[in-house]
């Protein structure tokens, strides 16, 4: 979201108000159209204001056709009702809304169990506004633990965090805001995420932790968390450096437990200190809710925890925000209760089936090369085949927009800036039928794209700033 500026010229532009929108008197009520960038002087009728806002929002894209986002765009009507009923509850008022607080606590307990905390009762965790806040909290805990262990050298020494160049932008923010050096493992050849050995080599006595991503937003692949832990075990044997791992499971921490039960990526690995997920991604809740969990109280320094009133006692909290809506947390509990393990497995499997099926269908068109196949996150990335020179991925993205599909195209980071891809995120609600319609639209465009004299030049810099 841009940091918005104020109005450039006073009275820049007034809204045009259809006289028919007035509630009672089409002439008198609409004597003065409200300004757009200044608080209007006078109130207007609620029905009129509602209609004006709705009219403008018609031009937003259709969320269900947005294949760029990981964030939930469909929930059951019952969930919508529950959220509307809870929209007046402030998550921080634990004493006023003790049942909402209790539901949050149950969600944390369920996730601790799902992610195999050695002692789920000892795991600590909290809800957040999303994974970005959860990652900030987890990063802070890593930094504080490192600072404690190195109090003879810090302040002074400069802490660093090791991760793949494919990390989501929230980790760049963390490093920037909290003054931690970001040490990035570059991509190499057909490896589009972190290499465990290369990550271990970047570690030193100032490394607060290593981030493993489940899975990468660039191509939907899972990073090899178990191999990363093994590489850090070997490092510890060689050097004595004991470096914790944080798993950024924004998407995958709600996919792998159901579809890849044997994959070792969670608290079963002793080196994994903390995990985050986005409740509003494959947790299947509308934005914004996220979760951060630490394997035990040792992993979360006590001095970062604040206490608020709760039923005459106090309740520990860890958050950047103070006030925050309770509705999303309630909706997360509803979804856990509603689906259970088997329900989540069925929903995520359906998304994976759509992703792998659509990837195969696109591969069969002959013009494209798949980088991933949707068999980890239900997400895949593809590029044009080597012999395609008439058009590029940016042309495909732009032309698909004509039919309403948002399929982002972007260029990879170091050392694969030569590679540009399209990415499709298959979420609950993007059905096999919708996927088939997308494939048909793409197929129909191909003859025209192939007849282009060359890829059309445009601002590829803007296209590459895509950061989901
Ligand atoms: C989406 C995402 C984030 C940021 O999560 P929000 O919930 O959007 O704040 C962080 N890391 C990864 C890997 C993601 O996919």
UniProtKB/TrEMBL annotation:
Its cofactor is pyridoxal 5'-phosphate. Its EC number is 4.1.1.15. Keywords: Decarboxylase, Lyase, Pyridoxal phosphate. It catalyses: L-glutamate + H(+) = 4-aminobutanoate + CO2. Pfam families: Pyridoxal_deC (PF00282). Transmembrane segments: none annotated. It is an enzyme of class 4 (lyase). The keyword Cytoplasm does not apply. The keyword Nucleotidyltransferase does not apply. PANTHER family: GLUTAMATE DECARBOXYLASE. Belongs to the group II decarboxylase family. This is Glutamate decarboxylase.
